[in-house]
Write a structure and sequence with these properties.
This protein has about 350 residues and is mainly α. About 70% of the residues lie in helices and about 0% in strands.
Length: about 350
Amino acid sequence: MLRRFAPAVPLLLVLIATAFGTLLRAEVLVERYGSVDHPWWARVLTQNLAPLAEPLHPSAFRWHRVDQPYVGGDPIAYLQYGREMRNFYQAHVREPMYRAVTRMWLWLMANQDVAVSFASASGSILTIVLVYFLGSAMVSRAAGVVLSFIIAIEYDLISWSVDGWRDDLFMAAATLSAWAFLRCRREPSLINAAIVGVATASACLTRVTALTFVVPTLIWLLFDDPSHPPRQRVKAVAVAATVCAILVAPYLINCARETGDPFYAINYHTTYYRRGEGLPSEKPMGVVGYVRAKLAAKPVATFDTAVGGLFVHPFTNKWRGIWVPQVAVILSWLSIVGLV
């Protein structure tokens, strides 16, 4: 009898991790932005269920009230973009996936601003489930369960999850893409290749810069596993790239038609960087031109900034929120090993 139900145990544990992570995120939502009185399910979640999380985490975990919600960053803009969204593939300064998710939550939440918190939190909660499948594909189902609980309880992930940023949705899309790549590497079938195409398209339509990991990984799949015939691998990569291109291309084409730049969502934002550095920002400048100018003016400083951003900053501003501090240190080092 026990053997019959053994395969269901990991999934049950992942459901527990997901429910626990949802409670923790609901608590942060209430602490920061207050409870929600409608619709009914949001009222139950924020007024009845969220308080249950307080005795279930370290007392040091506290979140302060936000007096002016969503002001001063992208979240307030995403509320505007979600309300103004005409169609999924319209040319826009922001990629469509998170705008569409925000619009969906605005509909579910009767057009309340708190919808953008639910949009970002949904990406964070989805990652709790997706990381189980990724861990199972990489190591084992037990490892996947452990990863799910880590994502569910990590302080920084909980803290940022309800603030309305698109990073949580991109985290989910990147996790889904990694899982799909592993499946296709193990068995380069047409179905697995199509899954790769859909997963990577979701990442690109959340952030076009996802191409920086999508393209190299597709190329890597051509050579990584010699146990499968080269023709099978080539066919799988071709299908994955085609599906991804079909799903992403309409957005890039519309941007090119209306703005003259298919990568408008990337290049537009050099305006903010130049303005922040006190540089002239009236004229448009692409990312390549921006980086080239910085390398020409201050090559050493630019290289130092890039190295710090890739290899130092990610390990100094994270790993503080695991409940046992010693585990946080171990995980940070393991992540460095994994990066190598």
